[in-house]
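Hi all, posting the design record for the shared folder.

TITLE: backbone redesign
STEP: 1 of 1
STRUCTURE INPUT:
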């Protein structure tokens, strides 16, 4: 994949902006490993239906949050609670903002225990991720594609 350096477009490897990362059906309550912009990431859908993308590795001991085949702490299918995701190694729970909000065996939660989160929008049956090398929030909204997608078909027999 070509980077911005290949085109002489600046110091960062990848441009900033909205990027299509897959069909909306890819985001489920079961976290999945994805890789974009040279980073291991995790995609999951919270109980509200909102899709989330976070860094893949727990800041505690580096466990991959989507690979949970040998854990006895967090069982498969139980990694997502509400809008939060649990680490399979020690059960640390990270909220939608990436901050750790629960450690099962401790009342103390370190402020540094935080995952990087990425803005995600679901539109036209597609998941779109905002990427910015500096971690800045989107400075423009994802276009609505002229309203052509995501609207239920109009039934012309029902005239109001």
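Okay, here is what came back for every position:
SEQUENCE:
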């Amino acid at each position: 994949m070509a980077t911005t350096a290949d085109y002489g477009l600046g110091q960062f490897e990848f441009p900033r902006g909205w990027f299509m990362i897959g069909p909306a059906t890819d985001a489920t309550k079961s976290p999945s490993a994805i890789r974009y912009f040279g980073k291991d990431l995790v995609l999951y859908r919270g109980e509200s239906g909102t899709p989330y993308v976070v860094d893949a590795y727990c800041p505690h001991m580096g466990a991959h949050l989507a690979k949970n085949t040998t854990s006895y702490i967090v069982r498969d299918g139980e990694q997502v609670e509400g809008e939060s995701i649990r680490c399979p190694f020690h059960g640390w729970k990270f909220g939608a903002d990436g901050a750790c909000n629960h450690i099962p065996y401790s009342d103390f939660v370190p402020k540094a225990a935080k995952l990087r989160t990425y803005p995600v929008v679901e539109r036209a049956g597609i998941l779109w991720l905002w990427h910015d090398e500096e971690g800045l929030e989107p400075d423009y909204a994802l276009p609505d594609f002229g309203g052509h997608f995501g609207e239920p078909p109009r039934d012309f027999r029902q005239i109001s």
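COMMENT: The two ends are 52 Å apart (CA to CA).
Let me know if anyone wants the other runs.
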